[in-house]
Each structure stands twice: as structure tokens, then as C-alpha cells.
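Re: the request from the purification team.
They wanted to know what the chain is likely to look like in 3D before they choose a buffer screen. I agreed to run a prediction and write the result into the notebook, where they can find it.
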Amino acid sequence: MSDLDFIEDANLRKTLESSIEYVYALFEQSKDKEQTELYKEETNRVMILYVVSAIEAVLLYFYKVRGEKITYSEYKFVQILPEQYLYKDKEGSPVVVAVQETVEKKEHQIGLHELATFFKEKKLIQEKTVGEILDLNALRNTFHFNKPRADFTCDLVRVESAFQLLVRTLQNAPKALSVKK
């Protein structure tokens, strides 16, 4: 039995299996002492990217399978009130009347931070685990070239920690899926 057997979506399961296999191969290759430090660090960064993406995919799968809904408030039919209703503490900011509507977020609008926080509030993920996920996500975001990398160490210790987090996520997933909404 694979740690991914709880994922009934065959395409997602296959993608995760292939990605994890690839990351493991990278991990073994990264131990090569003949590689430059730059190569090792960038390879570590790639492994973190894959691990965090796998965790995100699992959390999004939870979200869909459980039929969860993340919503936000949208304001429609906004009407600006006359100047006599100005709020004196916010000079120049008009007072408005609007219809507030609760709207479900579309899947492509939901990111890892929001998923992790959502499941923490549902008590399906421990606060400590959410912190670890979000820390790794911050490291993953250093793939954006305009994000500073000096604040993050990306070594094999960090990669091994990321792997452990992925394993815990996969091992705890079936139990979390069975918890009623």
C-alpha cells in the first residue's frame, strides 16, 4: 500500500508519484561532492519547490473531496452617500452603502497559505504543521527572482525536513479525510 492510495484521482496520484520519484533522484544526486555549491543550493531549492507543491496538491485534493468552501465578501451595487455623511476620522473617504454577498472562491484563487489556514481552523492540521508548511512556502517563493534569498538557508538539512513534512502530511491525510465536516 502506497502513502498515496487515499488519492482516488488517478492523474493526481500519478503526478505526485512521478514528482516524488524525481525529487528523490535529485536528492541522491545532490549528495555528489563534485557539484558546485551553487548547483547544490539551486537543486535544494528545486526539491523544496516540488515538496511544497506536492503538499499544496494534497491540501487542494482534501478541499475538493471534502466539499469544502472558502468564501469571501463581495460588495455590489455600491452607492456613495452625500457629503453630509462623511466619516470625520477618514477625511476624503466617502461613506457608502452596498449589498454584501458571500461568494465562493474559485479553485484557482486559493493558495497554499489560505488552504493551510483554513484546515487549521477546521482543526484538521495542527498549528505547528501549518507554521512549517508556511515557512517552506516562503522558501519556495524565493524562486521569484525579485524575492530576497539571503534570508533563507537552502541546504540538505532543510530539504530533509521538507521531506519529513511531506511524509507526515501523506500519512495523516487519510485520517483527516475521514473527519466529518
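For the purification team: The mean pLDDT is 87.
Please add any questions underneath this entry.
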